[in-house]
């Protein structure tokens, strides 16, 4: 009896310990993204695309809506996502965009949804049971026609609409009757871009503003400690510097004041770049997050993915998102945490620009594109056949914790317009110490789900040198990989602190600066940290394979502080002392 009791207690302790272990995730989020439904957007090739996301925490579950997915996702834990097929447009809504840049909000025990429209013909839908396709029309025709809408239900039970998407017009606010769900009075102009002052708001991949006026879009409002945080995206969804800024007010319709730390969510470097037009939310532990848009923009300017970042407010009420190592594995919390402290696991990228072997290559899609840390480039095999493979040499025996497989869309059949729920990927991952004797690492040869950005955390770390990905079945197109990314720790030395770091700010245009440093031997890349105070270096830029960076994202009248750190497969080097730049 004592032995049984001891075993029983051990089982309980083990179960509790297992439940207490935090899960990890890696951007871009692994969702079964639909294909663009718009034919003239896919003339360069059929491809997956979505953007403009929001997550609503409803009854302890997370509901994720984004552009043109013919449905939505829900999750219990921000890790495993379940797709619900659903079309919200009615037969008389003659548009390709099925819930383009949707809005969703909660009032009482009901979740509401509507998409973008310039007409007054879209219905608002409601559900009390959205984990399944169980929706009713709340309003058959919403008279406050709005593109990029966002609704905010205040704690005084008043409802507001925020919207706009233009490089000419501002973003607007409008009070909505929560009973009739129709506008009250007149809309109010709230926020415009001021790219003559704010460098990051300038159009272009490098904020050079020589082509078009910048776009403002993606309004979103959150309330924290009595303040209203009006968030917006700029300067254009095609660009690495696509980001989200924020204004603050004591009132839901302003006036709003530009936050000194801006953009608050910014990721111009790394594997997937861009962090614009998103929405913030609180998880079940009261931690803040920001779900937003990362850019691919190879086959079309609107080829995009979704990314998730820890977010919060510091003790002075400054809103921030933590994007450092933002596309490396991060830990999901299982309780209340401080997002000023990194959620990064410390698992480094082990195979950046390391030797690659492949079964075959399609002309123009070289093998090393799969390990160059750029989602815009990819290797493609010459077929989609079972048995095509790619092999990555880590260079030395290393500890492997996780692997992310990012598929690319190459020669996808012309039928793929919109959402398909019957497609799937199957593969095997092998590992070897010497490149000759192989052992199975992950077997998904029986998988029946669509996993275009599959992320696998190993049950326990593995000591190995070679990783091989073997194709069993492709969801669509040829066997093509934009990133076979192996994470863990190498056995070598962490790079030393950077020397010679300087920031040369342009005298006649303080929006611009040239950053330069001595290359550090053994460094894969560098994180540039900068911000509005020595203890508020909330922005970061990841730079691979270079020892300079042109930064054109600063505000003219702001004093900045800078530091830089090197990293490689073995870890992260020490940051330099913080430098003040007037």
UniProtKB/TrEMBL annotation:
Keyword Signal: yes
Keyword Hydrolase listed: yes
Signal peptide: 1-20
Keywords, ordered alphabetically: Glycosidase, Hydrolase, Signal
Top-level taxonomic group: Bacteria
Limits of the F5/8 type C domain: 337-489
Record's protein name: Family 43 glycosylhydrolase
Organism: Runella salmonicolor
Lineage: Bacteria, Pseudomonadati, Bacteroidota, Cytophagia, Cytophagales
